[in-house]
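*** Protein under study ***
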Amino acid sequence: MNHSVRRKRRNKKDDTSIFYFIIGLLFVFLLFGRESENKNSKKGKYVTTMIDTKWSMVPLVLEMAEYMAEENSYSLWSFVDSISQLNPALSELENDQIKYNIALSKAGLLLSNSKLRLLKFSLSMHTYSPRIEMYAQMAADRGVQCSTSVEIDGELVCSIKELKKVLQRISAEGSKHLCETYHIDHHHPSSKNKSNIAILYGELGTAEFASYHTVLKQYAQEGFIDYVLRHFVKEKSEQKVRLSGYGVELHMKSTEYKAEDDSVVKDKNDMNRNEIEEDTSEIEGFDFKRLIELYPDKKLDLLKFRNHLSESSSELAPLKAWQFQELSLQAAQRIMSGPPQDAIQTFIHIAQNFPTQARSLANVKVSKELRAEVSKNQDSFSMGLNLQHTDTVLLLNGMYFDIDITDMSTILDSVTQELSIMEGLYSIGITDKKAISSMLALDFGSVKGKSYAVDIRDSAIQWINDLETDALYKRWPSSVDDLLRPTFPGMLRSIRRNLYNLVIVCNPASKSSWPLLKLTDSFLNHQSPLRVGIVFNVSPKTAIGLNDASVALLNAYNYIVEQTSKPLTAFKFITKIYTSISEDRDVIVDDVLSEFKKQYPKAFIDEIFGEDSDYDTARVLAKEYVAKTGFRKLPQVLLNGVPLQEKSLVEEDFEEAVLVELVTQTQTLQKAVYKRELTDTDNVVDWLMTQPNVMPRLNSRVLNTDSSKNLQLSDKHESVLKSINYITFAKKSSINPITHWIVGDFSKLSTFKLIKNTFEHLKSDSESRIGVIPNPSNDDEHTIKINKIVFEAFKQEDKLNILVKHLSQAIKVDKNHIEIINSLPEEIHFEASKIDIQSYSSFAIEALNFESGQCGVITNGRILGPFDEDEDFLTDDFALLEQHTLKGSVNKILNILKESDVLDITSDMIMKASALISSRSQTKNRHSMPDVSTKHSVIKLSANNEDEPVFEINVIVDPVSRGAQKVGSIISVLSRVLNANINVYLNCVDKNSDMPVKSFYRFVLEPEVIFDKSGHLSPDPIAKFSNMPTSPLLTQILHVPDNWLVESIESPYDLDNIRLEDVEMGVYSRYELEYLLLEGHCYDSVNMNPPRGLQMTLGTKSSPVMVDTIVMANLGYFQMKANPGAWMLRLRQGPSADIYDIISHEGSDRSPNSMDIKVLISSFRSHIIKVKVAKKPGKQSLNVLGDDDTENKGLWNSITR
């Protein structure tokens, strides 16, 4: 019996084995069946898209030169020299790749490894291609015909022989015609003679260019010409510039409706086979390229297996509602479950091909650890960064980029700026990562962007009321916490504290002061929460109240205050006088005396208004206070010490300006109260006057940071910087946080005064150090000698004392520099050497952009100057500059260095760090990552080289979202371009109610230029969709930067309705960048309203109206279609040009030798201009659209016509 049972079991087992054997055979048959005769079906269906520019490709060496120019002028011209010296010439080499490698090797001598990678990335994006095209448009507008030519003295020269003749002529006689140049032009560093301009149009890398460059460089170095370089390629390539940095989406349409193109499409596959190589190496997670490398003997079987997977995965299977719920978490689980080195590629594959991945993801089991970590991190992101689950954010060194609205040009610009700062800090010995991160996070915009204020705690101010002590306000609450109490928008809170202090600085007798005083009186009558003060800027001391109305008003005010102890009563006396005057004129003495006698008939007029009046006080104090504020024109108004804009000090705008500033100040005060920086125990005015924006003295050159530039540090000038002598009287510390350079021709009287003021400042317990940079105006023996004497005197304190003493005497008696030299004692005479001075003069010209003989002050790299001939920079200005610099940047930098691992902190280190950090344009706030877990849901990529500056990149993204489709490719490229620590935080949605993503996506981006096997430029980059499902109806959508206007120029398919099962092989399309959008805003300078109906044109001299636009009446907005070039901006001929003139413009350019306004389109980024216009004299009543009255006529008026 047992034997029989065993036999039955054995037979059953055999039957099962046979069954599985048959199933296996069927699987093998299906898997490795015969290949299809149709080769295209084996490859699967594809979709490809590309965008080209309208202009032709140029040699990459020209774009390299523009990148070098962005670094600094020295790098550009060194690169131009090295390329020009190649033999054979670069253009004569075999193919594009060889040319590229040789040019890159020359650039590598001038760039760090990090910047070299960034150069390659810029070239792949063709970032500087628009600038090359702009120069080409300039050349075409000028009429350049030769392959290499020089514009000089009003003519175009096309031969070396002729060029030398012209150069010799203008060297002797000067130029009769000046060429137009722009700020974007490249001037040779040795160009000193700005009156003779020579512009070279040519192709860098050709032998012809090299010969012209050699001649022009020689004449520039000899001081005869200003040598300007503009790229020009005569022989245009048929190949257009292939763009990248954009996204392509294939969106699946709803199956509830169909809109198909039923026309017969003739496929053009033959054209695409040479250009498009499909990426089918990875299907369903199998990397067949790698498998074939590992098992070459199984290649045929692997190809058959790939074909099977391709065919079986091409169709989409519907999912149940419950299968949608955890797709985000399941995607994260699959990403984190694979090898760490493949995580990013898996992330990209899932996000960009999600519709075909969803079915397999639905079967993935999510671990408890990942689910818990994602949930915990989401709470941290919500609290710390205010992020929702669907937000996709990239933090680059803490700078916040919303991926949905950020283009690659913006990211590249930020990366370039960050790298320059980081490498600069590395070069001066600051390598501590924490210190670098802290310095990058410094926001000097909090000082730059805030309006500067002057201290209002001054006895010159006559306060009219006091909210804290006057009985009128005793019922108001007195706690500053009431600032946080909710109110209606725009409503001021009535608090019995002097939170808002309005000071009017004026001549009370001037009619220009009346509107301000009248509105201030209205503020007081309505019990506005304003403390009001007035500074009487009256006539000089010789005037008295009986012959000067301003003095009379001051006398009367002081008398009434003494008699009544009510400053408000005295103020109302002044306003009463104005109301009694019916004419439009200033107050006169009779007006004051008449009103005063009415109110005080028993008072003695002579005692009050006479020469010996006891009420003539505060006049000197007021004069000193006005000088301290730096106001050159009165009246002026201060609100908490902040000057209001002069244009708002008119009756129509004054009240609004005060309210706007009050709202701004309220926000500052609310933040301070919320953070407990301001409490009820503080004196509010004292607290306000200790803020960083309050200065002891206002000086526009010191405080207006927009008008000053910053030194760009370069290795070329390192020897000069090291040789500068410094002197300091500071004894407290070995470190001088402030470094001043005094630049100038020290043979001039103005620089004598500057040295004297500098010396006096040094003696006033200043902790600064001062060095001098001679910049003589000529090569005269005595000029060089006095500059040498001053330079040497700054080495030793005793010699400097003697020199300053003689200079002070020379200033009093107006001695010249020759007389000073002859009067100096022997111990401070030095051997004058022209060669020693020349290096400093060159530094002033090349690095500081001073002309010979010009004077200025450079403080921690910030360039103040060049000064005007009659401009004085006083000791108080040095004190203000020092305090401003300390508060603005230096104290923050010094504190960071002290808390870091930097051991040897030096004065040079602080100076250079301050120059580096201050030189950047701070446009983004920095955010620190909250404390989150990183074990189960974070993709980590480490920096390749810890000895180089390291970027910190954090990405927060839902792995199955629109943002993930875009950011994946960006991360992949940045990881190869930058030396960066990259963390990708998978911020998954807990439950999805629908398919999270219903589209396929490709982001077109490459880390460097791609060449084909023959060494020529590849047609890449293009968007490639491979192994696509054939049944869904797809719509192609391009995601390009907002200012790109692209148009489809080649595709036989309906790109709104793509069904791949209806095409033989695939779908291709080619787009063209038709225009770059130029945007702008236009306002009337008088009333700041948009000029209704104003028309503007863009064109060239030969074609002045190529594009036109009309200014919108509501916001003053306008836009124009443009392409790279230098375009003339004009008002359209007709009513616009007849009535209006352009009086100012921002974002545009104007050549020093031309009155034409030029708009330079030189990049792919958005270009925005601001234009202010004004009506011509006698045209104030006219309107571009005709009679204004017609606008107010209603329907019945039009009927009666």
